[in-house]
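@channel sequence for tomorrow's demo:
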Amino acid sequence: MSHITVIGDPDFNLGFRLVGIRDIIDVEDESKLPEIVEGLLGKEGVVVIKYDFYKNLPIHTKIKVEESLEPTFVRVGGEAGVEELREKIRRAIGVDLWK
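structure tokens (generated this afternoon):
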């Protein structure tokens, strides 16, 4: 089973705690977020990150996240599902169907 880390605010993280995930990072100061995310790069497993936190990351950190093979980053909440689907379609066919 893959190691799962969750990054979010305490309200976002509550459900993950309830299902037994232990590696949870409560972020109350978003200015520390790039340092937290970059500190996880290269580790094995899956990192679940609150979508609003992801979209507010500096572009150079987002690029590192997108290129990361380990860990795999999964954005959850907000428009994350639509945005990820949009990006996967764009990469697959080379056209943004939402434009």
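heads up for whoever presents: The longest helix spans residues 80-93.
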